[in-house]
Design goal:
Radius of gyration: 22 Å
Shape: globular
Largest sheet: 6 strands, antiparallel
Structural class: alpha+beta
Number of strands: 12
Number of helices: 19
Number of domains: 2
Oligomer: single chain
Distance between the termini: 39 Å
């Protein structure tokens, strides 16, 4: 019987109850069943990208779609970022290792960034989990590889420049798998990539040669602590004559919502409070809700129901929470379109899926992260822009770009190893150096498909 979409995050799949060595041996056996050359063999796809995009956008806000298309149309890379459903659909047609872990589902190079730990340390890692699910480990790596190629093309790098970088991304992922597999369970669980550690790693990788990435990291280290709710307040709000603050409307991106929607958001906030950590719930009793506004973000998420909530503390301080819609996994939207009960079941669980994945794959998470649902839609709450920063890959020179993408690959391996089944990956990749080149070739071929889809999109 085929698995229902509501089972795609069934964590019982990740409870093998075997020793690490037994799991490793399973990976070696899996390599015999699905050799690396088969895993990296490109299978051409046959579908209309516009149909899949339309299925996703049927769940989005119509008045934002024109601006969403404008953002997606900037380049093949931005189109790739905004259409995770296409690759999710196409990966189903490719060969699979069958080795299941919790994956990001959208591990492209712009979905890594800096964020604050609860102790206010600046960490680096995956930072987008809307497409997170239990899936084949190679799906994340393939998306990282294709995004590396497309982002590199946007930077003006040639295929000759990019092929060694692609090869190194997979090589670094393999080395990261070997490194993570050698860690004890506590060492894996507490692993964190603090910015100073990252800078030290980059210094080792770059042999003390100066790169733009080092300068960028220094700027991030100085700037990120200033990114907090008070900065958001200064930028996105104004005050009335009585001193009460409210969000500034800048339609269509920032738009006021009807009172009925505000009431739904308030009820969703109180449901979130009941389910969040007790210390966070107690802390938030110091705050009252002043205002909410619809506020669109990102590329792939642009067009979803997304809001900002302004809270004021009893001491005059402020907190801004983002309330972001948790859509069902994109590839499932078409199959669910005729089954309302299944759609509602998945929509209600989508926020919990995303929150669970983020807390698992990140070395530390926002303490305000939590799920809720209202109005037949699922949402997750998090603090908005709290010390969050990213590296603009378009400003990196070729060598810095290679260092950055390799760092992403290493952290992807560490993230995958939070799943109990991950030692199977180590067995599968043991002595598999040829996969570095073959997956690079797969990525170049799939990037060609993205470019063809992009042309169809911009000419529609």
């Amino acid at each position: 019987m085929p698995m229902l979409v509501t089972d795609l995050f069934n964590q019982n799949q990740l409870s093998p109850h075997l020793s690490k060595q037994a799991l490793f041996d399973l990976g070696v056996a899996r390599q015999q069943a699905v050799p690396s050359r088969e895993l990296a063999a490109y299978v051409p796809v046959d579908r209309n990208p516009l149909d899949l995009i339309a299925a996703t956008e049927s769940q989005m806000l119509p008045d934002l779609l024109a601006l969403r298309h404008q953002r997606m149309g900037v380049s093949p890379f931005t189109f790739f970022r905004g259409t995770a459903e296409l690759m999710e659909h196409d990966l189903a047609e490719q060969s699979h290792s069958g080795i299941q872990v919790i994956i990001s589902g959208d591990a492209h190079v712009n979905n890594y960034g800096f964020y604050a730990s609860p102790e206010r340390k600046l960490l680096f890692g995956l930072n987008d989990f809307d497409e997170a699910r239990i899936g084949n480990w190679e799906d994340d790596l393939k998306r990282l590889l294709v995004s590396t190629y497309l982002a590199g093309q946007s930077n003006g790098f040639s295929e000759r420049d990019l092929l060694p970088i692609l090869t190194n991304v997979t090589r670094t992922y393999r080395h990261g798998v070997k490194y993570a597999n050698a860690l004890t369970l506590p060492e894996r669980f507490y692993f964190s990539y603090e910015i100073h550690d990252m800078m030290a790693t980059i210094d080792r990788i770059s042999d003390d040669q100066p790169h733009k990435i080092s300068t960028i990291l220094e700027k991030i280290l100085k700037k990120s602590p200033q990114k907090n709710s008070e900065q958001v307040i200064a930028k996105l709000t104004t005050a009335d004559e009585e001193g009460r603050r409210y969000f500034i409307e800048q339609a269509p991106r920032a738009k006021r919502v009807p009172q009925a929607i505000q009431d739904q958001l308030i009820r969703g906030y109180h449901r979130y409070l009941k389910n969040t950590r007790e210390d966070v719930r107690i802390y938030l009793t110091n705050f009252t809700v002043d205002d909410v506004i619809r506020y669109a973000v990102g590329v792939g998420s642009f067009g979803t129901h997304c809001y900002l909530m302004l809270l004021s503390g009893n001491d005059g301080s402020h907190l801004v929470l983002q309330i972001k819609e948790a859509l069902p996994l994109r590839a499932s939207l078409t199959s669910l379109s005729s089954d309302r009960d299944l759609r509602l079941a998945q929509e209600r669980s989508a926020g919990r899926r995303i929150v669970t994945a983020q807390k698992t794959l990140q070395s530390a998470s926002d303490p305000f992260l939590g799920a809720s649902h209202f109005g037949h839609r699922s949402y997750y709450f998090r603090q908005f822009r709290d010390m969050k920063e990213s590296i603009d890959v378009t400003k990196l020179d070729l060598e810095s770009f290679g260092i950055y993408t390799a760092t992403c690959a290493f952290l992807l391996a560490i993230a995958h190893f939070q799943s109990p089944t991950a030692p199977i990956i180590a067995g599968y990749l043991h002595h598999q150096k040829p996969v570095d080149d073959t997956l690079a070739d797969w990525a170049v071929q799939y990037a060609g498909q993205v470019n063809r889809d992009y042309q169809i999109f911009i000419n529609y």
